[in-house]
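It is time I had a proper look at our fold encoding. Can you supply me with one protein entry, sequence and fold together? It will help me judge whether the discrete encoding reads sensibly. Leave the record below and I will have a look:
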Amino acid sequence: MLNKLREFMRGRYGSDQLNLALIITAFVVSLANGFARSLVLYGIQILLVLFAVYRMLSKKIQTRLRENRAFLRVCEKIKGFFTSVSTRVRDRKTHAYKKCPRCGAKLRLPRTRGEHGVKCPRCGTQFRVKIR
């Protein structure tokens, strides 16, 4: 039986991070539907599971890889945002964060009161910054 399953899955995509996210989302929707008892939530849950199964059994491996890469790029942007916010909150007493007026890069500056001259390491622009 196990050999037949292996033979069936040969050449198919299998599971990845996007499939895991789809299944976890379906589980969360299922929990929410336990309280709400909504046909709409039930339909969403079924669609999520069916899409995850479709992706696992798909033989279009390159397409599934592109979908997963796009998903991971979005996840990295979200993770980067929360990491940035966490760092800013942690350093709020010792450092100030200012944006470069030319390229928009975030600069981490020591929190020393007054007006200071700053040079952006990315684009080389020199500008004045007032820190309170």
About this structure: The first helix runs from residue 2 to 9. Residues 1-90 form one domain. The radius of gyration is 24 Å. The CA atoms of residues 18 and 71 lie 7 Å apart.
